Amino acid sequence: MTVVFMHHDVIDASKSPKSGFYGAGAEVYKVTLARFREQIAGLAAAFPGKVPALEADAPFALTFDDGGLSATEVVAEALAERGWKAHFFVTTGLLGMPGFVSVSGLRTLVAHGHTVGTHTVTHPHRLQALPYPHIVREWQDSRARLADLLGRPVVCGSVPGGYCNRAVRRAAAQAGLSLLFTSEPTIRRYESDGVTVWGRFAVLGRDPAESAVRIAQRASARGVRALRWQALGVAKNALGPAYPALREGLLRLRA
Predict the structure, then answer these.
(1) Using CA atoms, how far apart are residues 253 and 28, in angstroms rounded to an integer?
(2) How many separate domains does the chain show?
(3) d(CA 253, CA 255)
(4) Can you tell me the distance from the alpha carbon of 121 to that of 137, in angstroms, rounded to the nearest whole number?
(5) Given CA atoms 22, 144, 202, 13 in this order, what sign does their dihedral have?
(6) 40 pLDDT band (50/70/90 cuts)?
């Protein structure tokens, strides 16, 4: 089974020091370029001859959320050095805004063999809590815009905040998506409500470079992260709209 990693921004101060979202909740996901290079070097050494892919015989795949400027200015260049491809999920309402990729940048990613998918229009904190027609529009409008800009169908997306319930899955399928990524740290994928759902393992800025290799080798870190996710899931359901503020406060204390 393929282990799918979830990245956000990879920061190179000389190119894109400001990339993607900001705040305590976003900062923990920002990885330095040096650390990222160590991570992918470790994966390459652990799995010689293998490249990232969403295939049964591929040990790992790489995804990048939000559409921060580092996707085109930093990540694509680092991956090109190894001939690796990735999935980039873009918040379409932020295209071309300061710190986020431009339309020409997206087209360059696709031209170099990467896959671009939707991360909704507005990146709601709690997508699953919105009225169902609103969830459909978040997927539908972002997917349609990307397809128009790129001149090709867009069939994959990732869930903002990572939490996915049946309404989110059904809405994604209704909007024309067939592949949906969450933030649940699992190698299990399943069919539900018209889409294929993949879990992913988050890569944090403070993670040791070798942790990606350990996860890909199905080491004990997977169980720890799964437990952490389950606890977060309970908190999200119990606290509802209060969850984002509490999460940001906890992350600030831990930083």
Answers:
(1) 12
(2) 1
(3) 6
(4) 8
(5) negative
(6) very high
CA–CA gap between residue 205 and residue 27 (Å, rounded)? 8
The C-alpha atoms of residue 142 and residue 238 are separated, in whole angstroms, by: 29
Domain, as residue range, for 185: 3-254
Whose CA is closest to 4, among 120, 166, 156, 145? 156
Q: Report residue 118 as tokens.
A: 């939707």
Buried b or exposed e, range 41-63, using 16+ CB within 10 angstroms: ebbeebbeeebbbbeeebbbbbb
CATH number at residue 125: 3.20.20.370
CA distances from 229 to 5, 83, 169, 215, 226 (A): 15, 32, 19, 15, 5
Residue 210: phi and psi, rounded to 5, are: -75, -10
pTM for the model: 0.86
Q: Which two tokens stand for residue 124?
A: 């709601």
Does 245 have pLDDT greater than 90?
no
The total of other beta-carbon atoms located within 10 Å of residue 96's CB is 11
In the chain, beta strands by DSSP E? 3-7, 10-11, 31-32, 60-64, 87-90, 115-118, 156-158, 179-181, 189-192, 195-198, 201-202
pLDDT at 187: 86
* Residue 163 banded pLDDT, cuts 50, 70, 90: confident
Q: pLDDT digits over 182-229, tens only?
A: 999 988 889 999 999 999 999 999 999 888 998 888 633 344 454 344
Give tens-digit pLDDT for 74-117.
999 999 999 999 999 999 999 999 999 999 999 999 999 999 99
